[in-house]
Design a protein that fits this description.
alpha/beta; Rossmann fold; 4 strands; globular; single chain; 4 helices; 118 residues
Length: 118
């Protein structure tokens, strides 16, 4: 089994979500640097809890704007990352005729980017 290099950052997608926030908290507490994707890093109300976690840690948290529906928007965030916790989910609340394509997009854009950065 491969050892995880704890000197490299770990990417957590969907950084402002409930599950992602707990993962980020635990990683930072373990001294692991974190890259996290969010929809809008300029929305201070949405990222305030993450900023607070980062300020309480010796590890670093770097936020990246990303959109699951936009191909390539996760590439910068994945740079140099050792591991990915993919918790992001599309957020579409209107004109949903068939939710399957919107949900499958999660499987289309993230894995190829992960493999391409290796």
């Amino acid at each position: 089994m491969k050892e995880i290099d704890k000197t490299k950052p770990i990417l957590v997608t969907g950084g402002t979500g409930y599950l992602a926030s707990w993962i980020i908290k635990m990683l930072l507490e373990d001294g692991i640097d974190v890259h996290a994707t969010v929809r809008d890093s300029s929305n201070t109300a949405k990222i305030e809890h993450l900023t607070t976690l980062a300020n309480q840690s010796s590890a670093t948290l770097k936020l990246f704007d990303a959109d699951l529906l936009k191909k390539g928007s996760f590439e910068e965030a994945m740079g140099d990352c050792e591991l990915v916790f993919h918790t992001a989910s599309p957020f579409i609340i209107s004109d949903i005729k068939n939710p399957i394509p919107s949900l499958l997009i999660v499987l289309i854009h993230i894995p190829p980017t992960c493999f391409a950065t290796r």
